[in-house]
Amino acid sequence: MNIQIMAEALLEAERTKQPIAPLTEIYENITVADAYAVQLAQIRQKIDKGATVKGLKIGLTSKAMQEMLNVYTPDYGFILDTMVYDEADGLVAESFIQPKVEFEIAFVFNKELKGPKVTVQDVIDATAYVVPAVEVIDSRIANWKIKFEDTVADNGSSAGAILGEKRTLLEDIEDITNISMIVKKNGEFLDEATSSAVLGNPLNAVVWLANEVSAYGISIEPGMFVLSGALSKAVTFETGDEFEVDFGILGKVSVNILEKVGKK
Fold first, then answer.
1. What are the pLDDT digits (tens) for 81-126?
2. In this predicted model, what pLDDT tens digit does every residue of 247-264 receive, in sequence order?
3. Which of 113, 136, 142, 240 lies at a CB distance of 3.0 to 4.6 Å from 160, suitable for a disulfide?
4. Is 215 part of a structural domain of the chain?
């Protein structure tokens, strides 16, 4: 199994915006461990070229997404500084291949979380604050024809993050499992959910992540953020779309899809 060849194929797809066939079709014996090795090979190459890790994302936290891929565990990917977008600047659809947006709660940390024995209390103690967030997902695999190993190798299908401005302390949240979310698209109701959709409790997702990445010698460091998982289904978008997401006590986050950055 040539990890580097697979990593290069995905990097080239990202550069050229020409998606490739599923790795699980080309390399039928690819394992989950192989897929994470492919993911890390790409991240290391980007870091070597000057990128820095700003955060991590957790994917496949909802039952619906897990059932779609016939897996019953989440996955994760890295968010680099080149993938963080300012809420005021918006997004350009043409910057991606076949993008979608997801709506999540992001945890920002002021202490290190290092597995493998991280607990919910450890996450609480290490969290500086939480913010509403939008994750941009994209697939370098043609037509989103993915199995679990495909999305893992493809950095958890991650493509970007937008963090909302309002910062909320965990101690000010009465019940983190019952945060409501209402999504509007172009001013009209689109979807709603509660935070219990994320593994029953978003804190559980962060615990899982911190312990999982420790197998690769990775920890969640002070200043990093974690996108804890989508509360509802991913939504496709096109130029001109506007999303406003209201997380109740956590405040709102919005994203405009522009013709080019800074211009409607």
1. 999 999 999 999 999 999 999 999 999 999 999 999 999 999 999 9
2. 999 999 999 999 875 544
3. 136
4. yes
Question: Alpha-carbon distance 87 to 62, whole Å?
Answer: 25
CATH number reported for the structural domain that contains residue 56 in this entry: 3.90.850.10
How far, in Å, CA of 52 to CA of 59, rounded? Answer: 21
Q: What is the 3-state secondary structure (H, E, C) of 215-227?
A: HHCCCECCCCEEE
pTM of the predicted model as reported, rounded to 2 decimal places: 0.95
CA 109 to each of CA 38, 124, 135, 253: distance values in angstroms, whole numbers, following the listed order: 27, 9, 18, 20
Q: How many domains does the chain have?
A: 1
172, 46 contact by CB (below 8 A) = no
CA 250 to chain centre: 19
Residue 22 preceded by cis peptide, ω within 30: no
**Domain range for residue 141?**
3-83+94-176+195-237
